[in-house]
Amino acid sequence: MVRVSGRAKEMKRICWLIVAGLLSACTPAPEFTNGQGQPVALAQFAGKPLLVNYFAPWCAPCLRELPLLEALAQEGALAVVAIHYDPATPAELAALASRYRISLPLLIANDTASLPFPHPTGLPTSYLLDAEGKLQQTIVGELDAQQIATLKAQAAAVR
Hints:
about 40% helix, 7 strands, single chain, 4 helices, alpha/beta
């Protein structure tokens, strides 16, 4: 029987901690949390253009454009997600979805998120990403039917 010193055991433990740290560092942290408290990453939407919309329930233009965003998401030409601008909890997101009958994904941005677009300075703000997740366009202000039609055409062009 080989006797292992306390120092060797400690070195083995340190090596395993380093390996575990390296493995977890290879997996990108999710950028968002959804209304169910589950992590969501932008990579989950890869392969299709994505419209990322920042909104807040106190923002009247944000609430007015939600039905247009819902219809756009239902059409399936591009994926649509709405990110709550202010800090919120998953329970608050779930309540918002229920109150305003929102079926598109409502998300909370994580503090450590590395996103391909800046945090907006005004609301509503939308970002169009191509199928690879690269920023194609930034739209500040309320979306209307004409802008939605333009977004669909642009999404078809960047596929």
